[in-house]
Amino acid sequence: QFRQYTIDAFTEFPNADVDVNPTNDRCLQSAVAPALSPENYYIGAFAGSSNTFATISDGTTYLSQAGVIGDGTLTFIFPVADPGPANYDGPIYVGAYPSIGTNTVAFKSESGNPEDVIINFNPDGTTPYLMTLNTVNNTSIEGLTFNTSASGSGYGGIIDLQSCQNVLIKNNIFTNVSGAGWDLNNTSINISGGYD
User: Fold this and answer.
1) How far apart are CA 89 and CA 184, in angstroms?
2) Residue 138 pLDDT
3) pLDDT digits (tens, 9 = 90+) for 29-61
4) pLDDT, position 52
5) What is the pLDDT of residue 152?
6) What residues of the chain score a pLDDT lower than 70?
7) I need a labelling partner for 137 at 20 to 30 A (CA). Which of 20, 46, 68, 159 fits?
8) 75, 106 in Cβ contact below 8 A?
9) Among the listed residues 33, 61, 59, the one whose alpha carbon sits nearest the alpha carbon of residue 46
């Protein structure tokens, strides 16, 4: 359902003349996609909804490329499992995205109970945090468990906020590397750049 397109536009013989500068005749734009509207989008299969992304990475990549248009909250919902808990794979990366209107992006479990949804990832030197928000505003993260406890690489960071504003982190469980000493690689939440 969430398709991306490539647009290839070009001109020939402007005003029925030979073009003396053909180097500026073509515009090629890839990864063009219709913007998302502020509503619920489910991660994984969810009966009764066509608004689904196979993985959270699919959803956040699409968001970064297409953006949000309209007033309200765009919510990525992690459905619960029966029996639970539901397990999802990280990492999660959200970069700056186009936005028109007064909108918020939310990440939350379907039930609101963080014990029902676990997001797992083993951070490393390349990706030291399970979730990174980079130049993102008006975002909430609620009702999720973030688990980096299996990481054996010396990295166990949970959320990295880089130049973000107005980010709400509420009612979550963080399970870091057990017995790790304090350092930047094992912080639950790292904040750098501007933040409100």
Assistant:
1) 22
2) 94
3) 777 778 899 999 999 866 666 778 999 999 999
4) 84
5) 67
6) 1, 45-49, 151-153, 178-185, 194-196
7) 46
8) yes
9) 59
| 31 vs 192: CA distance, rounded Å | 29
Q: How far is 123 from 151, CA to CA, in rounded Å?
A: 6
Q: Are 29 and 63 within 8 A, CB to CB?
A: no
Q: Distance between CA atoms of 44 and 98, rounded to whole angstroms?
A: 24
* Six-digit token string for 123: 């951070």
In sequence order, what DSSP letters do the residues of the chain get, joined into one string? ----EEEEEE--SGGGS--S-GGGSEEEEEEE-PPBPSSEEEES--TT-S-EESSHHHHHHHHHHH-EESSEEEEEEE---SSS-EEEE--EEE----EESSEEEEEEESSS-GGGEEEE----SSS-EEEEEES-EEEEEES-EEE-TT--SS--EEEEEES-EEEEEES-EEE--TTPPPSGGG-SEEEESS--
Closest CA to 149 of 173, 125, 126, 132: 173
What's the pLDDT at 12? 82
Span between the terminal Cα atoms of the chain, in Å: 35
Given the DSSP bridges, would you call strands 117-120 and 189-192 parallel, antiparallel or unpaired? unpaired
**Which amino acid does the sequence have at 48?**
G
Place of tokens 């994984």: 44
